[in-house]
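Moderator note: this is an archived Q&A kept for reference. The question asked for a predicted structure of one protein chain; the sequence and the answer are reproduced below.
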Amino acid sequence: MPDSKPSAPTAPTAPAAPSRRSDATRAAILDAARERFAADGYERATIRTIARDAGIDPSMVMRYYGSKEGLFAAAVAVDLKLPDLGPLPREGVGSALVTHFLAMWEENEVLTALLRVGATNQAGAERMQGIFQDQLLPVAHQVCPDPEQVPARAALTSTQLLGMALARYVLRLPPAVALSRQEIVAWLAPTVQRYLTAPNP
């Protein structure tokens, strides 16, 4: 019986590319930062504890983000991906907006972390204000009947969306948690619709 050919030597596994290692490190830092900011608030969270949670040296956090302020800004960067309300039937904008926000809250833990920090800390509050200014106001402009009322109407809309998010995802009030998405849309959508499109009372 002929001898079998010796198998070719296995090539050594190439080490992970630096860019991939860097991406993984950044992701670990941001995940740890979100959890720590949400649990401890902005003031009490420290670079040292965040680095420990991420399993890295604190100098790496400073290398990538420069300061706690820079880390916080990166950790809570949020794109709400708001729908374009312009083409929708006017009577459907409230339902579309509430449905979208519920999906965002349930799929994006960054929003929950930001809401926790924003409720207790100036840096978090300013971040929430920036999101409101940059992302919600332009959407409200699409459907509000009076451009001068856009800021007030958008703020009223935020009271409903953020209030439900606080009760359901942060405080976790049992009746709010127990509601289905469909029930929340049914309750909130008419109010959001009125805030955005109804005549000025």
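Archived answer notes: DSSP finds ten helices and no strands in the chain.
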